[in-house]
């Protein structure tokens, strides 16, 4: 490439390279998100339908990022519900319908409090209130729950309902009843005794990988297309310049149907 061509096309090439680097970074990001999603799906598949183990035998593990390889694992746990301290988590839509999650503290034999998410309750016409709030009794209960990691604190001031299942916030609210377990909580799978009216059981988490793979491939294609467009423009500009200098025979234009029609009319 001559020096004049470098001055003319160098900035454009640099722009294409920057664009390709950006698309490569976005592609890598999508591949990374897909890998995280696949890892989470594998964990759900491995833990969700496992045989329940006694909660007293559980050795809870927490990763550096706050997640746990034991999330969704079913455990057997017993204690007494504290229905008078039940709480609702707002803004939890299900199948497009607004609703709440019901949280009920469970007082264990050792005096600690375990948070149980009993299920979903639809919102009334006034979406700030549930249609109903069926609570369990205070009698001793035997439960099977699937362990979950607590959620980040997204509250904006204290309210009657919760913005998230933040176990540290729950520990403060329930401090008068005892020590709240903040490493995890449980999503109810079954309970004994059973109740005629209960919140709706939450469905199994989605096992879909999403569109991360297709998005990653699309970003790669965009980067490749940028180089193809650059080289096409460079070659086309070079051909036009050589034709103008008489160093290259002009490219013969193939007659179109419009040209043929015009010749026919002239004849």
Describe this structure in words.
With about 270 residues, the protein is of the alpha+beta class. It folds into 2 domains: about 1-50 and about 205-250; about 50-190, no CATH class. Helices cover about 35% and strands about 20% of the residues. A 5-stranded mixed beta barrel has the order 2-4-5-7-6. β4 and β5 form a beta hairpin. The two termini are about 50 Å apart. The mean pLDDT is about 90.
Topology of this protein?
Layout: H1 3-47, E1 53-54, E2 74-81, E3 87-89, E4 99-107, E5 113-122, E6 140-148, H2 167-173, E7 185-192, H3 212-244, H4 257-266
Parallel strand pairs: 1-2, 5-7
Antiparallel strand pairs: 2-4, 2-6, 3-4, 4-5, 6-7
Helix pairs in contact: 1-3
Task: Give me the count of strands.
Answer: 7
SS-based structural class?
alpha+beta
Classify the helix fraction into a percent range: 25-40%
Give the spatial strand order of the biggest sheet: 2-4-5-7-6
What general outline do the C-alpha atoms trace? elongated
Termini separation comes to 48 Å
Q: Which ranges are low-confidence, i.e. pLDDT below 50, for 5 or more consecutive residues?
A: none
What's the Cα radius of gyration?
32 Å
